[in-house]
Write a structure and sequence with these properties.
GO terms for molecular function: acyltransferase activity, transferring groups other than amino-acyl groups. This protein is an alpha+beta fold. It has a domain of 141 residues: Peroxisomal Thiolase, Chain A, domain 1, CATH 3.40.47. The protein has 11 helices and 15 strands. The strands form 4 sheets. A 9-stranded mixed beta sheet has the order 7-6-8-9-1-10-15-14-13, sandwiched between helices. Strands 2-3 form a two-stranded antiparallel sheet. A two-stranded antiparallel sheet has the order 4-5. Helix 4 packs parallel to helix 5. It is globular. The relative contact order is 0.17.
């Protein structure tokens, strides 16, 4: 049976940057926020271990004097275009978060998700040992918006892929969505050793930001961000990350209410329990056990743990007995980008590959509704 490998990873973020200090001041300035909520906001933002986050919302551009700049998004002029229009998400003159409908939020997703997905895909293809003409499958992942024909079709047309490329969309699965996509890519490569699969995760989490005194919404508003990542999976050549094992674990039914993601009238509604870090600390060892690396987790050289938040990384590190060095890539991505949902684990793997050496192993894991713990064991081939 042919081995499947991640032969290239590309990432992209939108051009507008919101420093955490600015996010805190915005959330605190909203009308109707009482003292208890103010304390929760300050604690959540200040304790997030995040420096800044990226957003597609041009109305936030002034928080750093304009666009921070990210080539390939194709939307640098949007702030100018929106300058004469009434604000939809954020009124900079009053520092007020507005209340767009779910439809308005999704309209922005329709406009903004494709350029970001294309930027990540082009970045991956630019460093890949295969060409766009060789791509046989396209798998898209997103839980922050919907439309059809969607990003899968836009990727085929925008990248000049073959019109008979097989397309699959994995929707609304949450932060662990990259793993079902990788599993489908592995299946395609095992069925056809000539297959080349383009996986693209794109999430625009900040479209669902709102003012609230609800602790779940406060946590969400303090950590989530926008981004896209692409991975190219193939059986050849022998380079990149060999996918040795993938595993999915579902916690007991009592955990289902700890993390939920639903469609509301004012955007998508996240319920994220403060018990989640403790739950994952209890579950992660058993969830990863089927990967069976044959030795202690602490001896695995590299780790990519989805940074759902600082406490999740802290608890996971403690449960698995990992060093600060092993958690450094995960913490760096959290610090520089925040939690971008499904693309985040690919951002971490891309960072790991910058310094990993051939023969070293990597464990990646992410979490989502269910509560679901997805994981993978990889071996570096042809690293630096």
């Amino acid at each position: 049976m042919a081995d499947a490998r991640i032969v290239a990873i590309g990432t992209a973020v939108p051009p507008y940057v919101v420093p955490q200090r600015a996010a805190r001041e915005i959330l605190l300035a909203q009308p109707g926020i009482g003292r208890v909520a103010q304390r929760l906001i300050s604690a959540a933002v200040d304790g997030s271990a995040i420096d800044e986050r990226h957003t597609v919302i041009a109305e936030f551009a002034g928080l750093m004097g304009g666009a921070a700049g990210m080539s390939g998004t194709g939307d640098a002029s949007r702030a100018d275009a929106a300058a004469g229009a009434p604000p939809v998400f954020f009124d900079a003159a009053t520092s007020r978060l507005l209340r767009p409908t779910t439809g308005q939020r999704n309209d922005e997703y329709v406009r903004q998700s494709t350029p970001l997905a294309l930027a990540a895909a082009r970045s991956a293809l630019a460093s890949a040992p295969v060409t766009a003409a060789e791509v046989t499958h396209v798998i898209t992942v997103s839980c922050t918006g919907f439309f059809a024909p969607g990003p899968d079709v836009a990727l085929v047309r925008g990248l000049g892929l073959r019109s008979d490329a097989r397309r699959l969309n994995i929707g609304f699965m949450g932060c662990h969505g990259a793993f079902p996509a990788l599993r489908a890519a592995v299946d395609a490569c095992r069925a056809d050793p000539a297959a080349v699969v383009l996986v693209v995760c794109v999430e625009l989490c900040t479209l669902h930001l709102r003012s609230s005194e609800d602790p779940d919404q406060i946590i969400s508003g303090s950590v989530f961000a926008d981004g896209a990542a692409a991975a190219i999976v193939a059986s050849h050549p022998r380079a990149g990350l060999r996918i040795d094992a993938l595993h999915s674990a579902l916690a007991g039914p009592a955990s289902e209410a700890e993390l939920t993601w639903t469609v509301g009238d004012q955007g998508f509604d996240l319920a994220l329990s403060t018990y989640m870090p403790k739950l994952l600390e209890h579950e992660i060892g058993a969830a990863l056990a089927p990967l069976d690396p044959g030795e202690s987790w602490s001896l695995i050289e590299h780790w990519a743990i989805h940074p759902g938040g600082r406490a999740i990384l802290d608890r996971s590190q403690q449960a698995l007995g990992l060093s600060d060095e092993q958690l450094a890539p995960s913490r760096a991505v959290l610090r520089e980008f925040g939690n971008m949902s499904s693309p985040t684990v690919l951002f971490i793997l891309e960072r790991v590959l910058r310094t990993a050496r051939a023969g070293e192993r990597v464990v990646a894991t992410a979490f989502g509704p269910g509560v679901t713990v997805e994981s993978g064991l990889f071996t570096v081939e042809g690293g630096s």
